[in-house]
Amino acid sequence: MPELPEVETIVRALARRLVKKRIKQAALFTTRLRLPVTGNLSRQLAEKRIIAVVRRAKYILIHLDSGRTLVIHLGMTGSIRIRDRSTQAGKLFARARHDHLWLQLDDGSEMVFSDPRRFGLLALLETENLELWAPLATLGPEPLERKFTAATLHERLAGRKVSIKQALMNQEIVVGVGNIYASEALFLAGIKPTMAAGRISSERLALLVKSIKKVLRASISAGGSTLKDYRQANGETGFFQSRFSVYDRAGQRCPGCCCDPEKSGGIQRIVQGGRSTFYCPVRQR
DNA sequence: ATCCATTCCTGTACGC
DNA sequence: TGCGTACAGGAATGGA
Fold first, then answer.
1. N or C: which end of chain A has fewer CB within 10 A?
2. Would residue A172 show up in a list of annotated catalytic residues for this protein?
3. Which residue of the set A3, A8, A110, A184 is catalytic?
4. How buried is A57 (Cβ within 10 angstroms: 0-12 exposed, 13-18 middle, 19+ buried)?
5. Residue A34 Cα distances to A117, A140, A269, angstroms
6. Is A115 (CB) below 7 Å from strand C?
């Protein structure tokens, strides 16, 4: 999916375009997402004003003046597009194959949520009780907040035998880090992805925390990473993918590596928990 | 308590 | 061109 930088990029665009706008009409085209969509979303969204759009972990939270919040998670292949009235000039909205939610705003623009694989989710919840909702209730700390420190991570990893790569992807330990940025952050920190999470020194965890923040911030600055499905809300691709150090670069030389990939084999691809991990055996120990 | 494989669903790339 | 297979950015689940 969209990991934290991609979701953050989308949220910033949505905030710019949607806040203070009123939803004129809404249409939900399926209830079959990762969790069944409950309630009459179309009716509950119509005539409501959007007062804020924020991110929590990889969730998009759209606060409405009705005291409810529209929650969107993009799963692996979800995307959100906003289209101007001007680009639609006179045309009726045409639903594409995997469009699941359509909103028409009072300035004539439209927001569409699409998700071919339907691993994403949509929910409308009481804003006041949002944090009690199970998927949000168990989430760990935000990696870009100041209070996410080596001490935080150390405490959360204590005694864990699972690999550090898998631990970083566990949203109860730290949120927002998915398959790409887990590999990238571990490369920056020089930590081998298979190390037991609970056995890494505080010093190395401090470097890991810095690396996580650094790679996430750099990617946000680049508008995220586009592999296949991800697009910014205006339809443009991100461009951080061109700056990956190890992700999807098996056999190549890692940035600044001293070794000859012809001999060393370069960046390795292994599988952990069913997901690909990329790392440099020379620089990551 | 922790960890692992499996599952949801669809699209695409690749080898034959 | 067509077919089968593997794999893809996430996260919940059940069983070990």
1. C
2. no
3. A3
4. buried
5. 9, 21, 29
6. no
